[in-house]
Amino acid sequence: MRPRKTILIVGVLVIWVLMTYLAFMRSVRVTDGTRPRPAFSNKLMLEQVQHFEQNLKSFSENRQNLYRDIINILRREDKVPSVPAQAIPDVPSQESPVRANEEEGNTKERNPEVDDQANGVLGVPVPLAPIPEAEDGRPEVERILSKFQQRYLNNDPAFPVIPVVVFACNRISVNKCLDDLIRYRPSPDQFPIIVSQDCDDEATRNTILSYRDEVTLIQQPDQSDIPVPPKEKKYKGYYKIARHYGWALRAVFGQGFDSVILVEDDLSVAPDFFEYFLGTYPILKRDKSLWCVSAWNDNGKDGLIDNTAHDLLYRSDFFPGLGWMMTKDLWDELEPKWPKAFWDDWIRQPEQRKERACIRPELPRTRTFGKIGVSNGLFFDKHLKYIKLSEEFVSFTKNNLSYLVKSAYDDTFLKAVYQSPVVTLDELKRGMVMTRDPIRIAYHTKDQYKRATKNLGLMDDFKSGVPRTAYRGIVSFFYNGQRVYLAPSANWKGYDLTWS
Ligand SMILES: *[C@@H]1O[C@H](CO)[C@@H](O)[C@H](O)[C@H]1NC(C)=O
């Protein structure tokens, strides 16, 4: 066996040297060409640099291939453990099994577990690149996340590192979400994408792993069954979601990040998604009456929004979720009492909200494409699929967003609402409104509110007494190209928890 192995290694080395030599000769021939006139020299120089870069790239690819071939050979011969670990540096541990699989010429089916078994049969220890830290007893997730050392780019608090935590389970279509995030993120250093996977679904995990070092995968390790009261059996999914969120947020905030953006695996994001969160970040930090920034508008459908109001933002007492940013301070507050299920309804309760508001946009910066999920498909067909994703890029970091700070906002927004003329629902519906300026529809009871929203195509539900998108009971929307405020009386005293 020994001589064969040596011959193979030597053979591979010879091939590599030959390829390197040929590539080198090619580049020499190019440089030997006739001297160009000065006018063209820059262009030619550029081309040569590019050519050289390509060569370099192919050299390094060759080298990688060489490493792989050697590993393969060593692996086929038995009794050679852990050498491969040193052979490939710079490869994140999670990807190693995937790579190993490719070496078998099996690029289509990326399946770490099958590969692990195969390795076992071949007598080589499973982890291709054992990480020394794995032995210090730290949880896997901590080890994975410990590579994120920076909290601010260049230690500048104006440039916080804000991880995007993508919550995945068993939707392979998570790739749509990841493609968007990767396409639009301005800087991988400032916005590391951490995909947290529950459910242990292999196909989904392989999809996530195929993004290599563009995303970081962490996996919720506790897949044990959750005891659920018999009456809530059908809601078991919500228990799992709450467990997953709690685990992932604990892990990510455990790294000391100042804030994170939470994204579900079925969300598409708008081109200025990151810019939106960067621009609103200082306001979220500064105004303690805010507790989140959300990219979502519950009424963000064509016809109900002003398509030209690209940069219009609101305060909302209703927690929208669906692509949102929270700070570590908030997490520290919620963590000790994180619920077992229905975390989003829980977070909307007065005990958690404490009269704080979220910022939300007029034009949605997220849209959900998932029909199958824990919440029902009917709701998607009836409503969610009409949510319109903003397409224009707004430079929120350059805009003055001070108007969103509570003192300023309560002044101007409430003035705008209560100075607008009142019209009836009938007048609005029949097109009998004489002005194009903003108008107001008044409501005083829950039934009046429900009647108006149903008639106008708005979301009509409440959570902990708060209507969707409402700020101080006011719901702002567009109707027939006109701004309309559905508003309680000016001396509004607070939300009524019995409204549901
Ligand atoms: C930003 O807007 C606020 C009003 O909302 C104003 O008072 C402030 O002067 C503005 N700041 C700048 C730098 O323009």
From TrEMBL:
<keyword id="KW-0472">Membrane</keyword>
<dbReference type="InterPro" id="IPR052261">
    <property type="entry name" value="Glycosyltransferase_13"/>
</dbReference>
<feature type="transmembrane region" description="Helical">
    <location>
        <begin position="7"/>
        <end position="25"/>
    </location>
</feature>
<comment type="function">
    <text>Initiates complex N-linked carbohydrate formation. Essential for the conversion of high-mannose to hybrid and complex N-glycans.</text>
</comment>
<dbReference type="GO" id="GO:0006487">
    <property type="term" value="P:protein N-linked glycosylation"/>
</dbReference>
<dbReference type="GO" id="GO:0048471">
    <property type="term" value="C:perinuclear region of cytoplasm"/>
</dbReference>
<protein>
    <recommendedName>
        <fullName>Alpha-1,3-mannosyl-glycoprotein 2-beta-N-acetylglucosaminyltransferase</fullName>
        <ecNumber>2.4.1.101</ecNumber>
    </recommendedName>
</protein>
<comment type="pathway">
    <text>Protein modification; protein glycosylation.</text>
</comment>
<dbReference type="InterPro" id="IPR004139">
    <property type="entry name" value="Glyco_trans_13"/>
</dbReference>
<keyword id="KW-0464">Manganese</keyword>
<dbReference type="GO" id="GO:0000139">
    <property type="term" value="C:Golgi membrane"/>
</dbReference>
<keyword id="KW-0333">Golgi apparatus</keyword>
<keyword id="KW-0808">Transferase</keyword>
<feature type="compositionally biased region" description="Basic and acidic residues">
    <location>
        <begin position="100"/>
        <end position="113"/>
    </location>
</feature>
<keyword id="KW-0812">Transmembrane</keyword>
<dbReference type="InterPro" id="IPR029044">
    <property type="entry name" value="Nucleotide-diphossugar_trans"/>
</dbReference>
<dbReference type="GO" id="GO:0030145">
    <property type="term" value="F:manganese ion binding"/>
</dbReference>
<keyword id="KW-1133">Transmembrane helix</keyword>
<keyword id="KW-0328">Glycosyltransferase</keyword>
<keyword id="KW-0479">Metal-binding</keyword>
<feature type="region of interest" description="Disordered">
    <location>
        <begin position="85"/>
        <end position="122"/>
    </location>
</feature>
<keyword id="KW-1015">Disulfide bond</keyword>
<keyword id="KW-0963">Cytoplasm</keyword>
<keyword id="KW-0735">Signal-anchor</keyword>
<comment type="similarity">
    <text>Belongs to the glycosyltransferase 13 family.</text>
</comment>
<dbReference type="GO" id="GO:0003827">
    <property type="term" value="F:alpha-1,3-mannosylglycoprotein 2-beta-N-acetylglucosaminyltransferase activity"/>
</dbReference>
<dbReference type="Pfam" id="PF03071">
    <property type="entry name" value="GNT-I"/>
</dbReference>
